[in-house]
Amino acid sequence: MKFDMGNQALSTLVKQSQGASTDLGTLIRQLLVAAEPLEGKFNGSGKAAYDSFKARSDEITSALNGSLSAILGGQSGMDQAFSGGEQESADNATQAMSSANFDGARFGAR
Question: What's the domain count of the chain?
Fold first, then answer.
C-alpha cells in the first residue's frame, strides 16, 4: 500500500478548518434567530429545552469553537511535522549524495 499526500494537503486542510470555525459560530447565531418565532409556543419539557439552548448558546458556541481550535492545533502540528520531515529527508539525501563515490561505480574502461 502506498500513501501519497501532496505537500500542501495539510496546509489546505488547516485553512478550510479555520473558515469552518467562523461559519460554525455564525450558523448557531442564525439558528437562534430562526427559532425566535417559536419562543413562547412551547410548554413543559419542550420549553425547558428551548430555554436551555437559548441560554447556553454562547457556551455551546464557545465549546464547539474550542474543540475546533484544538483540531486546528493538531492539524497545524501535523503540517509542521510533515514539512520538517520532508525537508530532513531532502537534506539527508543531499548529504548522502555528496559523500558518495560516483566515479567508483563506473563500469566502463578508462
Answer: 1
Q: Quick check: is 108 in a domain?
A: no
* Domain enclosing residue 44, as ranges: 24-95
Model pTM above 0.70: no
Burial group, residue 101, by CB count within 10 angstroms (0-12, 13-18, 19+): exposed
Query: pLDDT digits over 37-85, tens only?
Result: 888 888 899 889 888 888 888 888 888 888 888 888 888 888 888 888 8
Q: Which amino acid is at 52?
A: S
The cell numbers describing 22, all together, are 467562523
Taking the CA atoms of residue 88, residue 90, residue 92 and residue 95 in that order, the dihedral angle to the nearest 10 degrees is -130
For 79, the enclosing helix (H) or strand (E) is helix 57-99
Cα separation, 13 vs 76, whole angstroms: 9
User: In one letter, which amino acid is 57?
Assistant: S
Q: Is position 101 within any domain?
A: no
